[in-house]
Fold:
Amino acid sequence: NAGVTQTPKFQVLKTGQSMTLQCAQDMNHNSMYWYRQDPGMGLRLIYYSASEGTTDKGEVPNGYNVSRLNKREFSLRLESAAPSQTSVYFCASSEGHYNEQFFGPGTRLTVL
Amino acid sequence: KNEVEQSPQNLTAQEGEFITINCSYSVGISALHWLQQHPGGGIVSLFMLSSGKKKHGRLIATINIQEKHSSLHITASHPRDSAVYICAVLGNSNYQLIWGAGTKLIIKP
Structure:
C-alpha cells in the first residue's frame, strides 16, 4: 500500500499562474483533507471532503478550489497563484471524521 | 487565546531522559490527536484518544477530559525522537481538527 500520495513534491509558480495539486489514497478512506503549513505555524485546513461527491470549506479556503474526483482522489487547484500561497501543502485521509488521519509527504509550493 | 495550547514550545534534553509534552484545550472535544512531524516534513499520527491512556512502545499519551488536558510522554528518549510533536483536537461542533502550534523536541546524544 502506498498510503497517501501527492504530486508534485516541489513546484515553483509565477504570480497569476494556475496549477492543480493531486492527492490519492489507496486505503478506501471516506474522508480527505487539504492543509497548508506556513513556517512556524500549525496546519490550517483549506478544504475537506467527508465522502465522495461532497466538499466543504475549511479555515482558509480563499484562492483555492477542490474536486473529489472519486473515492481515491482529491485535488486542490490554485486558479491564480499569489505569493501568499507559498507554503507546504499536505493532503490527508481518514476512514471517517472521528478516525486518525494519514498524511501524504507534502508539496512545497513557491509563488514568485 | 488559542483554543489549543502546547507547552513547552521548544525542548532540548539528553538521550535517556523522560520527556513530557503538554496540551491544553478550551473547547469541548470528541477526540484528541498526537502527531509527529519529522525534520524532513513528514507527518505521522501517533495516537488518537478520547479518554484514559494509550501506550505504544516508548510513547504514552494520557488525557483528562475534565481538566481539558493531555500529555505525551516519551520514556528513554533517543536522538531519533527529535521532531515536532503536534496536538490537535476534534471539536464537538464540526469535523475540523483544531491544531496546536507544536513542540519542537531535540534529543542530544
Notes: DSSP finds no helices and eleven strands in chain A.
